[in-house]
Amino acid sequence: MRENQKEYAYRVLKMSKDFLPTNLSTYPDLVLGGKILYNLREYQESFDMFEKAYQKNDHNLELLSLLITVASFLGKKEKIYFYFSKIESIDSNVYTHNLIAYILFQDGRYEEALNYFLKYKSLYKPAYARSKIGLTNNLTPMSLDLIKGKNLLIYSDSKMGYGDDVMISSLHGEIFKLCSKVTLLVKPKLEHLFRRSFPNVNIVSLPSSTPTYGEIDTIISNIIRDQDIDNILYNFEIISVVGKNYNAFSNKETSYLEPCHDMQKIWEARINKFSGLKIGICWESIKLSFGRARYYYDVSDFFDLMKNNPQHTFISLQPNVQKFSKSEKNILPKNFEIMDIDLVDNLDDAAALISNLDIVISPATYIAYLSAALGIETACISPHNCTILKWCVLPETSKSVWYPNLKFYWSKNRNQVSQVITDIGNKYIKKIEGKSKKTIGCSAF
Fold first, then answer.
1. Which residue range is the domain that position 155 belongs to?
2. Which domain-ending residue is among 66, 92, 118?
3. Do 280 and 314 share a domain, yes or no?
4. From the CB of residue 161, how many other CB atoms can be counted at a distance below 10 Å?
5. Which of 21, 59, 183, 373 has its Cα between 20 and 30 A from that of 306?
6. Judgement on whether residues 232 and 267 belong to the same structural domain of the protein
């Protein structure tokens, strides 16, 4: 694994066992190999490799944390507490205390977990948040009885991406019906979109999209001081309240986010000057990480779909779209357009453009979730071994539990991505061709 960053990034993007060298021996190689196996969901092999690395370095916090995490997936309780004891003997940081508290909580040791939450206040977790209003023993999962008819504060943090916030907000309507009053703490880029979409909710903006735990603590303290708050909920906890089974997701409204109508009209006029259907494409997430790297596409994966449909126009929905060189532009299909739009910092503009689309074809990125939340028919293409996404798919179907207008499709391997995109794209194009629809959108992890 002696390679420069560019070569390594390429290998992560094409992540596969085939890229794992044999006879790994050095500590860095063993850790990196274990991470790759972990992201391939090969937990036992990953754990074995991390243990080999531990034999070479038994004083590394990151490695100990990885060992505990993988051991928890495998149900190796003795191993969890063995490495747990090793972490406690080191001057650990906030991340490891988070992990310790999580393991204690999972094992039902609520008081011990709460002590960790309270001791390390920089770690802003629901247990600590609720302790601020006197609910110090409330570490057990939320229930309807604990929020029904109450004044509720819901907060998010930097650990949740825009896609997470948008996806979870599909359940907000159920929460709002139950509570007497709701205050929603959101990232600034979602503030205006959420204000329009949830007019009866008190929306409070975080200072930034990546707030520190200290900033979250200050804002929540101020809200508690000025308002009579009965309970505090972390965004993801909403699932345990109103999303305990698949039936909880049925009969939801197809569209629940409201774009800016003036901006919507502007984008409608701009894209209507192009010929045929207007098909948006996005080929990678704005965040590079082990968990997502396997699902990145390249713009070239859409070339066959573009060339097969020269009568239609393909519009980039790619956040942070790169500037193509002159030589690269020469190979781009002539029916591919890059719009002047900020899809990262101006989500109002993004919502206005996407709301003019008819269909989005995509693995899961916030662009795809935003599309589904705006009521656009959406298809997500993902690898066949993508367990990250399968938890939110209805059993025995390809339908999403989050949106009735979102379906999943799986490619068998990386080499089939272009063919799957072409097949699915053609399927949806035929579905709306000749109809008075606006556009199709395509997005990728």
1. 126-244
2. 92
3. yes
4. 18
5. 373
6. no
Residues 240 and 379 in one domain: no
Quick check: 292 and 445 in contact, CB under 8 A? Answer: yes
- 54-63 own/partner pairs: CB under 8 Å, 24+ apart: 56/26, 56/27, 56/30, 57/27, 58/86, 59/90, 61/87, 61/90, 61/92, 61/93, 61/95, 61/96, 62/31, 63/31
Going by C-beta distance under 8 Å and a sequence separation of 6 or more, which residues neighbour residue 91?
none
For residue 207, the one-letter residue type is P
The C-alpha angle with vertex 52 and arms to 48 and 56, in degrees rounded to 5, equals: 160
Same domain flag for 225 and 280: no
Q: Helix 77-88 to helix 94-106 angle, to the nearest 10 degrees?
A: 150
CATH number, domain at 435?
3.40.50.2000
Whichever domain contains 22, its CATH number is 1.25.40.10
Q: Which of 438, 273, 292 is nearest to 363 (CA)?
A: 292
Asked if 119 contacts 210 with a C-beta cutoff of 8 angstroms, the reply is no
Q: What residue ranges in 129-284 does DSSP mark as E strands?
A: 151-155, 181-186, 202-205, 231-234, 278-281
Residue 381 lies in a domain: yes
CATH number, domain containing residue 131: 3.40.50
Per-residue model confidence as pLDDT tens for the chain (445 residues): 334 443 443 344 344 455 455 567 788 888 888 887 776 667 898 899 999 999 888 777 778 878 887 887 787 878 887 887 777 666 555 555 656 666 666 666 666 666 665 565 444 566 667 766 776 544 445 677 778 899 999 998 877 888 889 988 888 887 888 899 999 999 999 999 999 999 999 999 998 888 877 788 889 889 998 999 988 888 877 766 765 444 555 545 567 899 999 999 999 999 999 998 888 888 877 765 444 444 567 788 899 999 999 999 998 998 877 667 667 778 889 999 989 898 888 899 999 999 998 888 887 788 888 998 998 888 787 755 554 454 456 555 566 666 778 887 877 766 788 898 999 999 988 888 867 555 555 555 4
Q: How many angstroms separate the CA atoms of 142 and 242, rounded?
A: 10
Q: Residues 324, 436: one domain?
A: yes
- The dihedral sign for the CA sequence 355, 301, 322, 17: positive
Contact predicate 279/425, CB 8 Å: yes
Distance CA 201, CA 216 (A): 19
* 142 shares a domain with 54: no
